[in-house]
Specification:
Length: 378
């Protein structure tokens, strides 16, 4: 048996990781400027993370959500403290798609409506409700209809007001930075308009922080730059630093009942141990505080490079749009310079989502590599 061939792969076999680096089976060292798809928040195989998981496997690796699980309660407490949402409630699951699936279900249960506003270019995952609000027909099979979803242009306030005036809206779901699309920011005034319209119309405001959250932008969540308070916040990727864990933060005014949401693996002790070690490390290594400065440093250096059309993002979530398709450049970065970066739906955009313990010298190395490659034939 072989793995199902659904992923385009680099011809590289990775066998080891540490900090911002990974190694292949031939001993080559790579700088990971993409954090394994925005997942590695505190660094590959961080010793505190490894220790916490080991400890959980020795004590209690798994039990279901039919008993109190102290590690789950500790994780909720710490997350409330660091995120600035101490009075919200936490539901844990296993992946980003699942987090959005549960957020959308919760919204629909709450106001008994089904019309959702989502945005052109959005990516929210591949499960039924999540893929319906994702703007990519190629990944929507016929069993996932999206006729209950209104796709609006990002940052178009007039279109947003019109949709609210014409329909009873269940919820609005939005990424503060559209990640997969190429790091396009939802304007702060737009997020404020969504928040106000949702309140006025008894609709729910769902923010997808799966890629942009967990400290990357210099606040715990990217939407906190806009001073809005969504009803439901979805999280995944950086939450477990590679251990599968995801969740939603829920406004305490939303009424829930037993059995409304549920999952077998979500919130199990081993996942919570990983999640808790991530939060403790973010706090003790002051990782959030560094990100604004590091992002500004990176952007300043990128600005000096040729062929760049636009640089988007904040902190350590950056999209760099060149005036040519970046497929070849990205491959040369990996094979010749041993640097991993990400691509995006926008074929001219390179994505940078490095581990948050990246150092200035790693940024300098990346800039030097880009300078070299761009000075030959990009
Ligand atoms: C913003 C956003 N939402 C949801 C998802 C889906 O997460 P997962 O792949 O863990 O299901 C992703 C994944 O890239 C994402 O970037």
């Amino acid at each position: 048996m072989k793995p199902l061939d659904v992923y385009p792969l680099f011809d590289i076999s990775l066998v080891k990781g540490e900090g911002c680096h990974v190694w292949d089976d031939k001993g080559n060292k790579y700088l990971d400027l993409y954090g394994g798809h925005a997942v590695i928040s505190i660094g590959h195989n961080h010793p505190k993370w490894t220790k916490a998981i080991k400890k959980a496997t020795k004590k209690l690796a798994y039990y279901s959500n039919s008993v109190h699980l102290p590690l789950q309660e500790k994780l909720a407490q710490k997350l409330g403290e660091l995120s600035g949402y101490p009075n919200y409630n936490l539901f844990l699951c296993n992946s980003g798609a699942e987090a959005n699936e549960n957020a959308l279900k919760l919204a629909s249960f709450t106001n008994q409506r089904n019309k959702i506003i989502a945005f052109k270019g959005a990516f929210h995952g591949r499960t039924a409700a999540a893929v319906a609000v994702t703007d990519n027909p190629k990944i929507k099979p016929p069993i996932n209809p999206d006729d209950h979803v209104i796709f609006l242009p990002l940052n178009d306030k007039i279109a947003l007001e019109k949709a609210f005036s014409e329909h009873e809206i269940c919820a609005v779901i939005i990424e503060p930075f559209q990640g997969v699309n190429g790091i396009y920011e939802a304007k702060h005034t737009f997020l404020k308009a969504i928040s106000a319209l949702c309140k006025k119309n008894m609709s729910l405001f769902i923010i997808d922080e799966i890629q942009s959250g967990y400290g990357r932008t210099g606040h715990f969540f990217a939407h906190q730059w806009a001073f809005v308070k969504p009803d439901i916040i979805t999280m995944a990727k950086g939450m477990g630093n590679g251990f599968p864990i995801a969740g939603i933060l829920v406004n305490p005014e939303i009424k829930v009942w037993h059995g409304m949401l549920g999952t077998t693996f979500g919130g199990a002790p081993m996942a919570c141990a990983a999640g808790l070690s991530v939060l403790k490390t973010i706090e003790s290594e002051k990782l959030i505080e560094r990100n604004v400065g590091l992002g500004e440093y990176f952007i300043e250096k990128l600005r000096a490079l040729p062929f760049i059309k636009e640089i988007r993002g904040r902190g350590l979530i950056l999209g760099v749009e060149f005036d040519f398709p970046i497929k070849g450049l990205r491959e040369r970065l990996v094979y010749e310079k041993h640097i991993f970066t990400g691509n995006a739906s926008n074929p001219n955009t390179l994505r940078f989502l490095p581990p948050m313990n990246i150092r200035k010298k790693d940024i300098d190395k990346t800039i030097k590599a880009l300078q070299d490659l761009l000075s030959t034939n990009p």
